[in-house]
Amino acid sequence: MLPVLSGIAAIIVLIVLIVYCKLHPFVALIISSLCLGLVNGLGTEKTVKSFTTGFGSQLSTTGIVIGLGAIIGGMLVSSGGAERIASVIVGKSKKALIPLAVGLVALIIELPNLFEVTFVLLIPIVFSVAKRTHTSALYVAIPMAAGMMTAHGLLPPGPATVIGAGAIGVDLGLVSMIGIVICIPVFAAGVWLFPKLMQRYYLRYQVSDGSEYATKDDALAQAPSMLKSLPSVLLAPILLIIGTIGKAVFSKGSVGYVITQFFGNTVVALLLSALYALIFLGLGSGM
User: Fold this and answer.
1) Are 187 and 107 in contact (CB under 8 A)?
2) Cβ contacts of residue 158 below 8 Å, gap of 6+?
3) Distance (Å, rounded) from C-alpha 163 to C-alpha 222?
4) What is the CA radius of gyration of the chain?
5) Residue 169 burial (CB count, 10 A)
6) Tell me, what's the pLDDT at 24?
7) Do residues 142 and 199 touch, judged by C-beta distance below 8 A?
8) What SS3 state is found at 40?
9) Nearest to 118 by CA among 149, 84, 143, 161
10) What is the rounded CA–CA span in Å between residue 178 and residue 241?
């Protein structure tokens, strides 16, 4: 019973340290983790060792995922590929379908990115779409956040899903396939149902007009095409799924098995996506 109660207490301490004491989440996590170990009788030495071992184990995979994801995200931002994806999907949508379109853009761009990176990236697009459709920025921003959270929590190669799958030892390709099934109703609820039910409340609030996020008029003209931009975020999930299918189809040790497992490895899949982004979005845009 003590581990359960102490675990709940550690979460409460974590929230208090971050929300009320304004500590950086990393520092707050260390403090709450150390307290949890000490309360459960691990002792100082074993508590610290357990924390550092767990941190190093997670970082061995997650650190590479975050680094490669940052490269892909950086290329999308710098080349204008993200703006192109948003323009193609949102620009051809009817006003009633704008929330769905914005959520889809957010989901696609969030796949290789950290949540904070995608949020900052999409803020100018939110205000641009809101001005174009003469709606509140919240009408666009809430579906954006829902699309981002769907990708962040359910679909690899996002860091959150990689960490979760690694913690319980689940194949990431399998997580991708199950995640796709689960994310459909979650995405629909967050992007369409919730805004529809709640818009009478949140549309009352006045927000910034977004003038501080104005972008150059010629930015989109220089951006790579949709055909070049989209593979940078979709290549890694596709390779992960191919790896899982290969594991089920080919016998262990066969040529097909070896090839699919190599390209379906998280690090290799993201590396190939990053190289694609560097070549076709970076060099292809004249960087």
Assistant:
1) yes
2) 69, 110, 111, 112, 113, 151, 152
3) 36
4) 21
5) 6
6) 86
7) no
8) coil
9) 149
10) 10
Of all residues in the chain, what percent carry a pLDDT higher than 90? 4
Helix axis angle for 81-91 and 98-110, nearest 10°, is 160
Q: How confident is the model at residue 107 (pLDDT cuts 50, 70, 90)?
A: confident
C-alpha triplet 155, 160, 161: angle, nearest 5° = 40
For residues 31 and 191, give the distance between their C-alpha atoms in angstroms, rounded to a whole number. 36
Distance CA 245, CA 99 (A): 33
Residue ranges of domains in the chain = 1-41, 57-285
Burial pattern 47-70, b for ≥16 Cβ within 10 A else e, equals: bbeebeeeeeeeeebbeebbebbe
Torsion of Cα atoms, 46 then 51 then 57 then 61, to 10°: 180
Say how far apart CA 35 and CA 44 lie, in whole Å. Answer: 10
User: Which band of pLDDT confidence, cut at 50, 70 and 90, is reported for residue 140?
Assistant: confident
Length of the chain: 287
Judge residue 227's burial from the number of C-beta atoms within 10 Å of its C-beta, 0-12 exposed, 13-18 middle, 19 or more buried: exposed
Mind listing the pLDDT tens digit for each residue in 190-227?
888 888 787 777 666 666 655 544 545 555 667 788 78
Give the residue, 263 or 58, on which the prediction is more confident.
Answer: 263
What is the pLDDT at residue 15? 92
Number of other residues whose CB lies within 10 A of the CB of residue 149: 19
